């Protein structure tokens, strides 16, 4: 296989008027190969690896539909029901080649991490064992995008009043608020409209102004715009809730406060291993 740089050089020589014979002589490559590279305009040929075990496309389409597009389950059903053993990566490649698998939605535009620019707020529902009973609770997190600090609290129910109480509690604890608070399009702070066209409830707009920030709704179907918030909930599910016991809601919130504001403060975050407490010091100075 001729590497990409040499292919580009061959096509450039041809484009500058050098004959295939002369290029072949100078580079020590056969003339048919030179002509083939010129016909491909110097691009690398697309390699399509054949499956070691052919699978009926109709079978793949049927299983894909039955599994609602979950390829992992298609992989399991092929092994369990059809006795067909295939690597998962080979299966996903074959589904793409056949046009069966759905293309992933385009991610929203990435926004740089800028000190003092942004925080993110959202809620989610969990079922948590409190004492002897399992209860439905609503977790709400405020996340500072630049310094990765988090403030976590649980409620039995969550409304506009409790949202203001939560934000007041978190921002008072930090003594600081970034310029924007990114929220979703079903949030209690939104009156109507979506994304850039969202209109914020006057009461919530006035509340935010007191703390020096404004609410901003992300675009519709772009929850990854607040990916830090989504990762925070994932961390709650995989790190905070497992292996802990809670006597009641008060105990749950006591442990949540200690975990989110103490334990996570000096735990390295992400590939850069950023320390939230240290990054926050820098963020405050920049405000």
What keyword list fits this structure?
287 residues, alpha/beta, Nucleotidyltransferase, domain 5, five-stranded mixed sheet, two-stranded antiparallel sheet, 43% helix
> Any idea what the shape is?
extended
SSE class = alpha/beta
Distance between the termini: 55 Å
What percentage of residues falls in helices of 4 or more residues?
40-55%
Number of helices: 11
Residue stretches low in confidence (pLDDT < 50, at least 5 long) are: none
* CATH level 1 name of the largest domain: Alpha Beta
CATH superfamily membership of the largest domain, which one?
Ribonuclease H-like superfamily/Ribonuclease H
Rg (C-alpha, Å)? 28 Å
Largest sheet: 5 strands, mixed
CATH topology of the largest domain, which one?
Nucleotidyltransferase, domain 5
Strand content: 15-25%
Number of domains: 3
User: How confident is the prediction overall: mean pLDDT?
Assistant: 85
Summarize the structure.
The chain is of the alpha/beta class and 287 residues long.
Describe the structure.
With 287 residues, this protein is α/β, with parallel strands linked by helices. The protein folds into 3 domains: 4-39; 57-97, no CATH class; 118-286, Nucleotidyltransferase, domain 5, CATH 3.30.420. 43% of the residues lie in helices and 15% in strands. It is built from 11 helices and 7 strands. A 5-stranded mixed beta sheet has the order 3-2-1-4-7, with helices on both faces. Strand 1 (118-130) and strand 2 (133-144) form a beta hairpin. Helix 2 crosses helix 3 (31-39) and helix 4 packs across helix 5. The longest helix has 15 residues, at 160-174. It is extended. The chain starts with a helix and ends with a helix.
């Amino acid at each position: 296989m001729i590497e990409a740089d040499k292919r580009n050089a061959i096509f450039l020589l041809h484009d500058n008027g050098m004959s295939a014979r002369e290029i072949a002589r100078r580079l020590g490559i056969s003339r048919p190969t030179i002509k083939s590279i010129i016909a491909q305009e110097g691009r690398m040929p697309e390699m399509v690896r054949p499956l070691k075990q052919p699978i009926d496309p109709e079978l793949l389409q049927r299983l894909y539909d039955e599994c609602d597009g979950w390829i992992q389950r298609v992989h399991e059903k092929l092994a369990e029901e059809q006795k067909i053993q295939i690597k998962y990566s080979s299966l996903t490649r074959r589904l793409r080649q056949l046009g069966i698998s759905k293309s992933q939605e385009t991610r929203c535009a990435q926004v740089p991490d800028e000190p003092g620019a942004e925080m993110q707020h959202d809620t989610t529902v969990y079922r948590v064992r409190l004492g002897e009973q399992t209860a439905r609770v609503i977790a709400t997190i405020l996340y500072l995008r630049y310094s990765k600090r988090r403030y976590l609290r649980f409620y039995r129910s969550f409304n506009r009043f409790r949202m203001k109480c939560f934000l007041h509690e978190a921002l008072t604890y930090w003594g600081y608020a970034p310029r924007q608070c990114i929220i979703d399009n079903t949030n209690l702070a939104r009156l109507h409209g979506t994304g850039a066209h969202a209109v914020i409830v006057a009461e919530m707009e006035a509340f935010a102004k007191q703390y020096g920030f404004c609410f901003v709704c992300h675009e519709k179907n772009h929850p990854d715009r607040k990916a830090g918030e989504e990762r925070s909930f994932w961390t709650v599910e995989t790190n905070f809730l497992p292996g802990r016991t809670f006597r009641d809601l008060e105990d749950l919130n006591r442990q949540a406060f200690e975990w989110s504001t103490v334990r996570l403060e000096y735990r390295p975050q992400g590939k850069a291993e950023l320390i939230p407490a240290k990054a926050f010091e820098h963020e405050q100075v920049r405000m």
